[in-house]
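Appendix C: a fully annotated inverse folding record. The material below is reproduced so that readers can follow the format used throughout the book. The structure is listed first as tokens, followed by the designed sequence.
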């Protein structure tokens, strides 16, 4: 009987989550960056398809939005690999 209780205690001690609260917060921040970047990238179209709109080549869509999206992916990789020091 003691063996079963001892085994159950060891199982409970070893069955912890792989991620901590900080990992999930960092993952959320990374996903939020990606979503913000995608929203910054949208738009710039023209009402008439035969008209060219110079707005599609703005700084926001060509430079800023991709940088924010890549930053979000980097934050997500860091959040997955991060482990708290014990």
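Designed amino acids, in order:
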């Amino acid at each position: 009987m003691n063996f079963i209780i001892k085994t159950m205690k060891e199982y409970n001690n070893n069955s912890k989550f792989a991620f901590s609260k900080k990992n999930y917060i960092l993952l959320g921040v990374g996903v939020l960056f990606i979503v913000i970047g995608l929203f910054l990238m949208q738009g710039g179209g023209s009402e008439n398809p035969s008209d060219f709109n110079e707005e599609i080549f703005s700084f926001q869509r060509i430079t800023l939005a991709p940088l924010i999206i890549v930053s979000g992916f980097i934050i997500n990789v860091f959040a997955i690999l991060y482990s708290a020091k014990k």
